Amino acid sequence: MAIKFILSGIVALAFSILLAPLVISVCKKLKASQSILHYVDKHAQKEGTPTMGGFIFLLAMLVGIFFLMSEQRFSSFFLILVTLSYALLGFLDDFLKVHFHHNEGLKPYQKIIGQFGLALIVALYIYFSGRTSLNFFGLTFDIGLFIIPLVILVLLATTNSVNLTDGLDGLAGGVSFVYLLIFGIILTLATNVEMNNLALVTFSLCGGLLGFLVVNSYPAKIFMGDTGSLALGGFIGTLAVLTGLELILPIMGVMFVLSALSDIIQVLHYKRTKKRVFLMAPLHHHFEQKGVHENRIVVVYIVITTVMCLGVLGVYLAVGF
Hints:
- Helix 1 runs antiparallel to helix 2, helix 4 crosses helix 5 and helix 5 packs antiparallel against helix 8.
- It contains twelve helices and two strands.
- It is mostly helical.
């Protein structure tokens, strides 16, 4: 089975690298470029960079798993379907930004309605499939009907957190790659075919992300856009709830959590006092405003994510899945 995992990642990586120049060329011809917010002055030079690059790693993921999936695969197909649904929601947002040449796509309430609707579908699927227990370092907790609001909360939090983290070249992609790579390894500790199939999809997405980072690392030749960030958030959140590993998500994805918390703290504090806690939110923009180069910020985020993920992996290796 290990050969399948490696092969799916390699196939997705190769396809992603080959596909990237084509997607960049098409986006340039269609003038599908990113508009930069006027108050992000340090990013002014990025104006006009192609967007919707999420298609690169999403298509690569599909190619990577096409011939390698085992027979018991409904959960994997469901994961892929949900991911592509979030990608469609993100694409609508990106399309409106590109079409009207500004940085405002879907209205916030429209995004939330779409995210909530998809999260509700996932929650109902989880509940009626009988998966109502949580796994936390080998301990299991059955929460029954409360799994529904928990799944909705996890998906809303994860999709928005990953979306907020997508603010520097290679940041969301790099952090997500490390998170998913270690999460996939944790899934291989399980002995059933369903978990192995989910691991296969995860390693395939890792390969696609790695290829995407070739063109998305500083200076980015293309951004993933909401097409990619919402798809990544949807994938990460849905993978966690399908496997019962919701409780380790905020530990392994601590940098996603910090992005969301910093934004929430900034907004709430400003509304109350008209003063800012951070120079700019989310947190990575605060460091950027302090004069830290975005490459250094990206590396630090990836290193912290790696340490946290390896810590969680170490515990699961010790106690079992």
